[in-house]
Amino acid sequence: MSSNNDTTPDFAVDHAIFYCVSAIAEGMSRSQYLASVPAALVNQGDQFLGMMAPEDQHKVAILFARQIWNSCPIPASDYHRDPLPKPRRNEKCACGSGLKFKQCCLNLPPIPFDDLPIWAYLLEVLSEDQLHAALASKQIPLELYAEIGTEWLEDGKPTKTVRLLEPLFKEGLKIDPHLGYAMNVLCDAFDQLGHFNKKTKFLKRIASSNTAVSGDAWQRLTTILIDEGDLKAAAEAFKQAMRSQPEDPNLASLEVLLMIRQGKDDDHIKQRIRFWKQKLRRWGLENEPIMALLETAEVNPQSAFVAGIEHALDPAFIALRQWISDVLQPREVSAYGMHIMDLLEDDDVQADSKVAHNHAPQRREGILAPPPDIQEIERLWHELLPENKPFLTQSLEQPEAWEQTKWLSFLQQNEQAADSLSILDDLVAILEGFPEIDWMGVADGIFEPIYDRARAILLKSIDAQGADITLPWPAMENRPALRLLYQRAMQSGVPGMPEEKQNLEELIKINPGDNHGVRTLLINHYLRTGDDSKALELAHAYPEDILVDLKFGEVLAHYRLGHQKESEALLRKAHYEHQLIARTLWRKRVKQPDLDPYGVTMGGEDEAWLYRTDMRGVWESTPGALQWLRKITS
Description:
By secondary structure, this protein is mainly alpha-helical. Helices cover 57% and strands 3% of the residues. The protein has helices spanning 9-25, 30-43, 47-50, 54-71, 118-125, 128-137, 145-154, 158-165, 180-193, 196-207, 214-228, 231-244, 250-262, 266-282, 289-299, 304-307, 315-328, 353-357, 372-384, 406-413, 421-432, 448-463, 479-491, 498-510, 518-528, 532-540, 548-560, 564-577, 581-586, 605-620, 625-633; strands at 73-74, 80-81, 337-344, 362-369. The radius of gyration is 31 Å and the shape is globular.
């Protein structure tokens, strides 16, 4: 079964196995199976039978079919095996020859199944209902759960994947050494659901569990920490990965990536590459892809990881990356015009924004207006790439753009496209739709220049007005800029670090209506870093906010500042409106509810769970806070 060549015996055996297993999955009884399957194998002219003498083909087909039946879990038997009785020496042979078994098929050599992974075949032919029954039977080998989870992920069912795989890693259970792959699939499911904090917490628990998959967890944590820019913690996680699995070849590429991000000089990186190459040769892995990657890295470490997969990338992607580097980044920034509206604070429902941002009673709102030459560029651009701006605050992926790339030629012929906020917004959507954008290293350095240029255009446009201007989200002309500024804030800065605070504060200052909801991230940042006064100031700017982070964040800030009366009154009000939050916070263990990747139920178990995931650690680190919370709300 190792060959992909349809003319080889391996492929023929593979085909025959699938035929037998499919018949079993369809619910054939023993007698039906034995009466029809061997004859069908002969009539189909399967390649491995065709290599035998005609008089042996029927015998081997029966022997083969019997072996598959005996090896295969039977759906009608709750996925236990139901082996056929082996003929006794003096009984008639099962092949129908009329001879005694000892005179017939007893001496035929067994079919070389090479440790047949029969469950892998069966899983491919089971219906969805049968698969659920097989899982309920607890008969499927644990190492195959990851394959099932992967298939569900590809079908867009991350919640089902989590339900399947998470119990395998339950605290207190002995973790099977074959579950490294399942751990990674579970992490991918967390990513699809947006449960990044939960994924990190899960990996830390597995990494510290001193089990056979601890090394896999340390490696994944290292990658996460590198992506977040926490290189000190990434280096420590990598050391732990080395201790756990010192002979894992994947450590070679991970260490090179870490050293590149740490800014190590090329000579130091090349020295470590030579060390790993020697190890890989000793392990007999000189012909593996990792060795080719190290060879590339030894020549030019900085471009190693993208260069190692360059041949597999769409040339259009490589050309776009080059355009960003050669045209977009060095190009001088020009300001947009702006239509200004002078408003009194009373004209706006959200008048309290002046509390947080010290606005004067009269404020100015702007609507961005691209210069005439940029308007013409945008008109021509949208003739090639029809305008499909999302109504929502985030980009809408455009994978279809890679099927036909006239837009790329347009960029190469019109450098002014780099001055258009609308086109920059489209480029992010196009890049997010690139099929290989999630490959390691592919996205490195490609989004940031777009975000930074959009921010520079926006700030220059505001500065040109000579005063602070806010940009309302309802104005369609402002949405590309605000969307890009939001995405920049989400992708730059580690939670709790100064960059996060600066990016979020800037976004709220420009769009105090905060249509992106970053005030929840900002108030949580203030509380994590102990800036309780700032947390209160932000909460007061949105007094009737429905978001749970603002309500309970204000409660916690008052509590930490010693405002007993205010904190208790606010807690009672917040608890009345969100009755599950307090209980979900103070309980030591809470079962995760079903989560919808497309939204949160206000007042629901999912809302409470997500707030607990983000903020329980902050409440727990505040002396007496959880006990007080329980006392007031019980």
